[in-house]
Amino acid sequence: MTVDSGVRLECAGPVATVTLCRPDVLNAQTPAMWTALSHFSRDLPGDVRVVIVRAEGRAFSAGLDLSLVSGEGTNSFTEMARLTPEESVDRIHAFQMGFTWFRRPDIVSVAAVQGHAIGAGFQLALACDLRVLADDAQLSMAEVTLGLVPDLGGTKRLLELVGYARALEICVTGRRMGAAEAERLGLANLVVPRADLDGAARDLAAAVLASPRAAVVEVKALLAAAADRRYEEQDLAEREAQVRRFRDLAGLGE
């Protein structure tokens, strides 16, 4: 994928790297970027196991490109308001697809976040399974300050990570959180000096790759579904997953 969309995909063996590349506007996001992101899921080679999401420049992403707020063009707020509710819902669903594919059970995604991760930037980081933050990171779910709600798949993940009361407070105030607070709340797996950010993300990817792929896939699927299951259902899912592992390791898998 070319950088014309503001984001590029590079693959090196089992690791793919998605890079936001609009540093001159702090990687402000556009629908073209979300479309490109959704296409990356289709374009990933089958041997990719880890996807690192990073950004050029001093910020991960300052959020929504404000031309969408003030303009009259395609996908602007003005145009979205003129669509029928059904058309607008479908349009937003297409935007969400650029974020939701990171939930795929066959990959583990790692966000490497420096500087501002605001609004859509914060939601992109939340879309990933794991987050490594530079010590200068500033996170904010700022949609409410524009009179909007987070709509790129971030609310459920935020709730799962920090709980209802904290998630509500973060979303309705739009306040900024530094890296230390994000780590304390469970939003960051690791906080490192800015100069070490890319290396730390690569090290985390290498740690994931050190475990057998099929086992990692089963573990991610188990954990991703656990919150919606009763204990008895999760216990059964564990048993069934383990039986599949036994059979696979014995050469009896399908």
Could you walk me through the main structural features you see in this protein, from its secondary elements to its overall organization?
It is a single chain. It contains 11 helices and 9 strands. The longest helix is centred in the last third of the chain and has 19 residues, at 231-249. Helices cover 47% and strands 16% of the residues. It has helices spanning 31-43, 67-70, 77-82, 85-100, 120-127, 154-162, 164-173, 179-185, 197-209, 213-226, 231-249; strands at residues 7-12, 15-20, 50-55, 108-113, 116-118, 130-134, 138-140, 177-178, 190-192. With 254 residues, the chain is α/β, with parallel strands linked by helices.
Brief sketch in words of this structure:
Helices cover 47% and strands 16% of the residues.
Indicate the radius of gyration in whole angstroms: 19 Å
The span between the termini is 35 Å
Low-confidence parts: none
Helix and strand content put the structural class at alpha/beta
Query: What is the ordering of alpha helices and beta strands?
Result: EEHEHHHEEHEEHHEHEHHH
Overall outline: globular
Average of per-residue pLDDT values:
94
Report the strand count: 9
Strand order of the largest sheet: 1-2-3-4-6-9
Biggest β-sheet strands, sense, barrel = 6 strands, mixed
Number of helices: 11
Percent of residues in beta strands? 15-25%
Helix content: 40-55%
